[in-house]
Amino acid sequence: MKRYCLALDLKDNPELIAEYEYWHRAENGWPEVRKSILDAGIVEMQIYRTGNRLMMIMETNDQYDETAKNASDAANPKVQEWEQLMWKFQQPLPWAKEGEKWLLMEQIFQL
Predict the structure, then answer these.
(1) What share of the chain is helix, strand, coil (3-state, %, to 5)?
(2) CA 105 to CA 64: how far, in whole Å?
(3) Strand pairing report for 90-91 and 2-10
(4) Which fold has domain 2-95?
(5) How confident is the model at residue 31 (pLDDT cuts 50, 70, 90)?
(6) How many CB atoms lie within 10 A of CB 2?
(7) Which residues share a beta bridge with 57?
(8) pLDDT at 55
(9) Minimal CA–CA distance to 82: which of 15, 47, 30?
(10) 89 C-beta neighbours (distance < 10 Å), count
């Protein structure tokens, strides 16, 4: 099992942040997106927010392959529709390269 921590910013707009949170409630998520996450080998995913900064924690099984997940998502029209909807609320971190959204965080401490 491997853990990934990623970061992304939301647009600093209370209405957009509230709508983003609405879409991430269990009853409002899209089953096709949830299935794509689980099918990729992601066994646990949590998103935390402070202000407009998000942090995602993913736990994956040993078969998880980021490249394969990205290819599968690119070929899945429903996942692409979800990503398009989410981009309404999201903005890249200031140091992100062109086209990057969620950025992998580097672990700097462990107790």
Answers:
(1) 35, 25, 40
(2) 18
(3) antiparallel
(4) Alpha-Beta Plaits (3.30.70)
(5) very high
(6) 10
(7) 5, 46
(8) 98
(9) 30
(10) 22
